[in-house]
Predict the structure.
Amino acid sequence: MKGILFNVVEDVVTEAMSADAWDDVIDAAGVDGSYTSLASYPDTDLSAIVGAIAATADLSTEDTLRLAGRLGFKHLAGRNPHILDGIEGWKQLVGSLDDIIHPEVRKTYPDAEVPGFATTEIDGGLRVIYTSRRQLCALAEGLIVGGGEWYGSELHVEHERCVHEGATACTMVIREVVAGDEPVDQTH
């Protein structure tokens, strides 16, 4: 896993909790904790860090990943603002992940193993098929919701199918919450 993701998780923990909290998470996770954005690190390091955050915050691993994605999107976008050039809204953002954004990511991080996102427009939103050997669909969901917030939209994500429930890929339906709609619990 590329170091930039670890950097973003550190930014989220530091912002939401404190710099000391990040040190505590690293200690509890039993990992080195020194991550540079261009280097690659074991996926198990991220799992350990997320597990330590989940235990500290009394959240499930999935909710921790969703929260890290949602809060981390702005940090990720801030580190690579050029990648969002020309993107004008959440649908365009999500729809361009495979064709525009991830190829740009590979220019900076040539050995990055990025997930796949196949999107289809549906009435009132998008259907997204997420594929990744890492199976971090909760993180992807959080990043999508954070991307919506970046563009001023509140999004609701519903998992129709999930690899954690035996599916071969995750299928998510994403819709914008319209003013006056019932608030939606994003923690599942």
In short: The mean pLDDT is 91. The beta strands are 116-122, 125-131, 155-161, 170-176.
